[in-house]
Design a protein that fits this description.
Cytochrome Bc1 Complex, Chain D, domain 2; globular
């Protein structure tokens, strides 16, 4: 064919014809990687990286405090009891068991005369990303070094370094979690002086804990190393909270999941199943309405129809009204009813490791969670209580009035079924498992051999 003939044929091809050729087919769908990367860009999903370097002396102090039961009124529970490295920064329980309990992890037992903590203990993994809200109901919030919003009956001190430190101020005040009840005696038979103080004297509780800590020579040395130039008399519990936060930021940050590698442009990091699940998650399904941005969640609140289990919270007890309880206390508007049964969808990185799921731990597997979202009204009406520990089954609120109440403010996106196929549900689970950093599977190295108080680290 001559040069002129070739040019003519190419022109005909553009119009759809040339001898021996065929008309073009319909436009092809973009490749799955192109499609997924467009969705991730639209959702503001970006890689996460290492936390800023922390002061080693501050981290060492924070590690000791995290595992030391001296912070609790009865000297029988530490922060790490509910946020155990051996269970990926949580306790493996549906509802946490606070002071008075015995044991660790899923085998922990409720003490005589004690009640379950009303909510699931969230994992500490990647909390160093410092979302705007913390706790299931978002009762602590704020950016940077604050100021931080807190429950109205507690005024947080100045000098807190970040929101992780702000949240660390509160569990030691909670009678069910760490502080104990008036009249309690500690593990040595001595009167629990923290529990004797009225709830309104929360600052006195913090001061009493610091008195305990600074009365131990090793802690005095560690505080001096972490805060050189700060007189002992000027040290408050906010200094302890800042140290705990520094330890959490350094010790519990894991950011090398297959999904994070994919965000770093490694197309081979995700399996085909995980990619299909991700395109569903960030595409036609409503998941990314809550689980978006760098944190993959944690920045808003939603009622997703979670079954109600447990002793309840505040004025709503025996139900847990979630964010509505906080809104009624902290803000005059919007109407608390718009937040009734709404909770903070947690960030999802490493979610595979942190079962059971939801604010009250009602689902033991990711498969069960996906089934719930596939048809929320049906899942709520037909909830199988055998998924719960036998000790909690009698605390399931499955009466028709409660179910109707929860469904009345259900997030509109979940009022009709998603109609996922078995394969699509499997792909979604594959995507969620791709959020696991292999290094998060074994955090045993975070556990110290001993703590300055001499109290047992694990029992």
């Amino acid at each position: 064919m001559s040069r002129h003939g070739l040019a003519a044929c190419l022109g005909l091809l553009a119009l759809g014809g040339c001898e021996g050729g065929s008309p073009p087919g319909p436009p092809t769908e973009p490749g799955i990687d192109q499609q997924l990367r467009q969705q991730l860009t639209q959702g503001g999903v970006v890689p996460i990286g290492p936390m800023p370097a922390q002061n080693p002396a501050l981290v060492a102090l924070g590690q000791a405090l995290m595992f030391d039961k001296i912070l609790s009124g009865n000297r029988d529970i530490s922060c790490a009891t509910c946020h155990d490295p051996l269970h990926h920064g949580t306790d493996g329980l549906s509802l946490a068991i606070g002071t008075g309990g015995t044991g660790m992890g899923p085998g922990r037992q409720l003490g005589s005369g004690r009640q379950f903590v009303p909510r699931n203990a969230p994992s500490m993994l990647n909390q160093g990303l410092r979302p705007f809200y913390l706790f299931w109901d978002g009762r602590v919030s704020g950016f940077g070094a604050g100021p931080f919003t807190s429950p109205p009956d507690v005024v947080l001190p100045s000098g807190l370094s970040n929101i992780l430190a702000a949240q660390a101020m509160l569990p030691v005040l909670n009678r069910r979690e760490m502080r104990g009840d008036s009249g309690d005696v500690d593990r040595f038979g001595s009167l629990n002086e923290l529990a004797q103080l009225p709830d309104s004297q929360y600052a006195e509780v913090w001061r009493a804990i610091m008195k305990r800590l600074l009365g131990i020579p090793e802690y005095a040395v560690r505080f001096g190393a972490a805060y050189p130039g700060t007189p002992a008399g000027a040290l408050g519990f906010q200094h302890a909270a800042n140290a705990i936060a520094a330890f959490l930021m350094q010790g519990f940050s894991r950011y090398d999941s297959p999904f994070d590698r994919y965000l770093h442009r490694d197309d081979a990091a995700l399996t085909p199943e995980a990619k299909r699940g991700a395109t569903l998650f960030f595409g036609r399904l409503p998941c990314a309405q809550c689980h978006n941005g760098p944190l993959l969640g944690g920045q808003r609140f939603a009622n997703v129809g979670v079954p109600q289990v447990g002793p309840g919270v505040g004025k709503g007890a025996p139900l847990d009204l979630g964010r509505a309880e906080v809104v009624a206390q902290q803000f005059p508007v919007p109407s608390p009813s718009s937040y009734r049964f709404a909770f903070r969808p947690p960030p999802l990185r490493n979610v595979e490791l942190t079962a059971p799921y939801m604010h009250d731990g009602v689902y033991p597997t990711l498969e069960a969670v996906v089934r719930h979202y596939n048809d929320v009204p049906t899942a709520l009406r037909t909830y199988d209580v055998t998924q719960l520990d036998p000790a909690l089954r009698g605390m399931y609120h499955g009466d028709q009035a409660t179910i109707t109440d929860v469904l009345s403010t259900l997030e509109w996106r979940f009022r009709t079924p998603l109609n996922l196929t078995d394969g699509e549900r499997s792909d979604l689970v594959a995507f969620l498992k791709s959020l696991t950093d292999p290094a998060a599977r074994d955090l045993a190295s975070l556990i110290p051999a001993s703590v300055p108080s001499g109290l047992p680290v694990r029992e």
